[in-house]
Amino acid sequence: MSQSGVIDQEDGALPQSKPARRRLPFSGSYTDNRRLFLFCLGAPAVLYVLVVGVWPLAQGVWYSFFDYNLLKPNRTKFVGLDNYFDIFADRSARQAILNTFQFTIFSVAIQLVLGFGLALLLWRDSRFNRICLAFLLIPATITPLVVGLIYKALLGADYGLIGYFLANAGIGPRTGLMTDGSTALWTLILIDCWEWTPLMALILLAGLKSLPSDVLEAGQADGATSLQRFTMLIVPLMLPSIFLALVLRTMDAFRVFDTVYVTTGGGPNDATNTLMLLAVKQGLQFFNVGYASAIGNVTILFIAIMAGVLIFCVRRADVRINGR
To answer: Where is this region: Disordered (predicted)?
Structure first.
């Protein structure tokens, strides 16, 4: 070995080379690895949505163009838009559409007014209000199926704890509130309000608690009355929360099924028949999958239209009040 550290040729030793570095499978740039990591995280959720949501929806759209009955699968034939035309030509289906819109509009409107009032009452952060809110949310934790069974038992004219005394007092029909065409749908609307008004109040209460206190205090300092602060400050600032509550409850109320199914079954004389109940009857009772799929698609279309109308109205109110 020479002093310079270079191996002499006569020593017979070969120069040592550095071992080749093995390339790892995910040794790209940080950006590429981050994208791959995010893709791996989101892929199961996307796959679940495709399998559980998109694929059945696509099948429903496809079946709606066919005269497809499970009892006669060999006689399936393409009918185009005939199933959709049959919905608006059928008297029972037209009544179901009318009942669904009536149920949705009145129940959501009542829940909005009552929910806003409850949210204002519970706005102050105190122990008493927190206890009241906990008890208030109990109805929203009960499944609609159980709620329907409970009220069917309570409102029965023969043995119901409420219906028996109402019938004997001459309030409402003698056969019960759910057996008369003039009161059955309104009874279901009130039952829905009893169950879901707490949820509406909870959403609006969260919006109230997120309001900037300095704006409200400035309005009070300027001499604005309680009504003026409510109409000119609270309501404009609450528009996003109101929109969220309206959209969530409208989508849920329009596809009501459980409560109606266990209480009236759509009767009497289709007075409480709804679109979802009609679709279930056609699909699972008469096995008319094509017609049931068309009813389901019409329901989705109506929900999208109502959501679009709500977005337009809230956006227009926001522009008119807040100027943005």
So the answer is: 1-20
Give the residue among 306, 322, 304, 123 at the shortest CA–CA distance from 239. Answer: 322
Q: How far apart, in whole angstroms, are the C-alpha atoms of residue 74 and residue 212? A: 65
The structure's pTM equals 0.84
The answer to whether 137 touches 115, Cβ cutoff 8 Å, is no
Set out the domains of the chain in order of their start, with CATH numbers: 92-322 (1.10.3720.10)
CA–CA dist 115, 121 (Å, integer): 10
The string of DSSP letters for 62-122 reads HHTTEE-BTT-GGG-EE-TTHHHHHHHH-HHHHHHHHHHHHHHHHHHHHHHHHHHHHHHHT
Cα(161)–Cα(145) distance, rounded to whole angstroms?
19
Instruction: Tell me the C-alpha distance between 295 and 277, whole Å.
Output: 10
pLDDT tens profile 154-187: 998 888 888 888 888 888 788 888 988 889 999 9
